[in-house]
Design a protein that fits this description.
With 360 residues, the protein is an alpha/beta fold. The chain has helices at residues 14-32, 45-51, 57-65, 88-98, 122-125, 166-181, 197-210, 223-232, 244-257, 296-309, 313-328, 346-359, and strands at residues 3-10, 36-40, 68-73, 103-109, 129-135, 147-150, 156-159, 186-191, 217-222, 239-242, 265-269, 275-279, 331-332, 342-343. The longest helix has 19 residues, at 14-32. The radius of gyration is 20 Å and the shape is globular. Bound molecules: nicotinamide-adenine-dinucleotide. NAD(+) binds at residues 76-89, 282-294.
Length: 360
C-alpha cells in the first residue's frame, strides 16, 4: 500500500524549502520503488489565515491518518501580536503533543566540506557526528500549573512546572539506548540532578533502563557542564539523551558547531516510529520570498523520514550521498558560503541534489 505523506510547508521560507524537498522525495520514491501519496495542508500562520487557528481539527485528523508528516517551519512577525493561544508555534506544539511525538532526534553532523563554516576551529569540529535525543512532549513546556499573577504586595510573579513521570523518562531513555546501540554504544544522559527533583528521577530511571542495555556505556552529565563541553570538545559525545528544555537549548548550540542551522534535519517519533520530520531552523522571515534559503535541512529531513519511519535505508543513504556530492561540487547557499565556492539559490540547490541523486 502507498505510504501517505502529509506535507505542511508552514510559513516564511517553508514553501520555498519544501518545494525542493518534495522534488527529492518524489525522485527517491521513483528510483527506489516506494509507493507514496502526498497531500498538502497548512500549519502555523498559514493555517491561522486559512482556518482561524494554527492547527485545524481537519489538519490534525489528516496528520493522524498519514504514515508520516513533512513540515517546513512556522511563525513570523505578522503573528507576533495576535492572541498567544493562536500563535503559529501553538499549532506546532499541539500537533507534536496530540500525535504523541515524544522522541526528537536531532543529528548534528559536520560535513567535511563545511568545516570552514563553523565558528569553532576545524580541528575541534571536523568529523563531528552527534545525535541529540530530546524528550519533546513533556517537562516544563507542557507542565501544569503555569501561571502569571500579582502578589499581595503588588509584585508580578510567574511560574512554570517541570514534571516528568517515570514512563515518560523510560520511553525516551529507550530511544537513546537504541540509537546508541547502532552507533558507537555510548550514551550520555544530560540532567540537572544536583538541583532538580525531576532530574533526580530522570537519572534514576535512565540507570534502570540501562540495565537492559549492558552493551551500551552510560554516562551522566549536568547540563551546565554539557553546554561547556559541547563547545570545548564536542567530539567526546556520540548520543545525548535529555529532557525537553535542555534538549531545545543544547541542540541549537550543537547546530552551530556544524556551521549553519540550514543544514540540520530532525525527526519527532511516536511509540511506533511514525513521525514528523522537519528542519531544525525556523521560518527565517528575514529571507523569506527571496529564493535564497538553504533547502538542505528539509531535504535531509526527507532522508530521516525514509530511514526512521519507512526503514528505507538505501533511499535515505542515497539522499545523504547526493547532498554530500553537491557540497563537493562547491555549491553553497548564502548561509554556508565560503571562498572559492559558487553561491546558488534555493531552487538551484534543490535541482543539484535531484541531479546528483539521479546519477547515483
Ligand atoms: P530562524 O531559524 O527562523 O532564523 C534564524 C537565522 O537563521 C535567520 O537569520 C535566518 O535567516 C537563518 N536561517 C534559518 N533557516 C535558514 C535556511 N534554511 N537557510 C538560510 N538561512 C536560514 O529563527 P528565528 O529568526 O529565531 O525565528 C523566526 C520565526 O521562526 C519565529 O516566528 C520563530 O518562532 C519561528 N521558529 C519556528 C520553528 C519551527 O517551525 N520549528 C523553530 C524555530 C523558530
Amino acid at each position: 500500500m502507498n505510504k501517505q505523506i502529509l506535507i505542511l510547508p508552514g510559513d516564511g521560507i517553508g514553501s520555498e524549502i519544501m518545494a525542493e524537498a518534495v522534488k527529492v522525495l518524489e525522485l527517491a520514491a521513483d528510483k527506489f520503488g516506494l509507493g507514496i501519496e502526498l497531500s498538502f495542508d497548512d500549519l502555523g500562520g498559514a493555517a491561522y489565515e486559512r482556518y482561524g487557528v494554527p492547527l485545524a481539527d481537519e489538519t490534525l485528523e489528516r496528520a493522524r491518518q498519514a504514515d508520516a508528516i513533512l513540515l517546513g517551519a512556522v511563525g513570523g512577525p505578522q503573528w507576533d501580536t495576535i492572541d498567544p493561544a493562536l500563535r503559529p508555534e501553538r499549532g506546532l506544539l499541539k500537533i507534536r503533543s496530540q500525535l504523541g511525538l515524544f522522541g526528537n532526534l536531532r543529528p548534528a553532523i559536520l560535513y567535511p566540506q563545511l568545516a570552514e563554516a563553523s565558528t569553532l576551529k576545524p580541528e575541534v569540529v571536523s568529523g563531528l557526528d552527534i545525535l541529540i535525543v530530546r524528550e519533546l512532549t513533556g517537562g516544563i513546556y507542557f507542565g501544569q500549573p503555569r501561571e502569571r499573577r500579582v502578589l499581595e504586595n503588588g509584585e508580578r510573579q510567574a511560574y512554570d512546572t517541570l514534571p516528568y513521570s517515570e514512563s515518560e523518562i523510560r520511553r525516551i531513555a529507550k530511544i537513546g539506548f537504541d540509537m546508541a546501540r547502532v552507533r558507537s554504544k555510548k550514551l550520555c544522559s544530560v540532567d540537572k540532578a544536583n538541583v532538580l527533583a525531576s532530574s533526580q528521577l530522570w537519572r534514576e530511571v535512565v540507570e534502570e533502563v540501562g540495565q537492559e542495555y549492558p552493551d551500551v556505556e552510560l554516562s551522566h552529565m549536568y547540563v551546565d557542564n554539557a553546554a561547556m563541553q559541547l563547545v570545548r570538545a564536542p567530539k567526546q559525545f556520540d548520543v545525548i539523551v535529555t529532557d525537553n528544555m535542555f534538549g531545545d537549548i543544547l541542540s541549537d548550540q550543537a547546530s552551530m558547531l556544524t556551521g549553519s542551522i540550514g543544514m540540520l534535519p530532525s525527526a519527532s517519533l511516536d511509540l511506533n516510529n511514525k513521525g514528523m520530520f522537519e528542519p531544525c531552523h525556523g521560518s527565517a522571515p528575514d529571507i523569506a520570498g527571496q529564493g535564497i534559503a538553504n533547502p538542505l535541512a528539509t531535504i535531509l529531513s526527507v532522508s530521516m523520514m525514509l530511514r526512521y519511519s519507512f526503514s528505507e535505508v538505501k533511499a535515505a543513504d542515497a539522499i545523504e550521498k547526493a547532498v554530500s556530492l553537491v557540497l563537493d561540487q562547491g555549491l553553497r547557499t548564502g548561509d554556508i558560503m565560503s571562498e572559492g565556492c559558487r553561491k546558488v539559490g534555493t531552487a538551484e540547490m534543490g535541482d543539484a541534489v535531484v541531479a546528483a541523486l539521479k546519477n547515483l
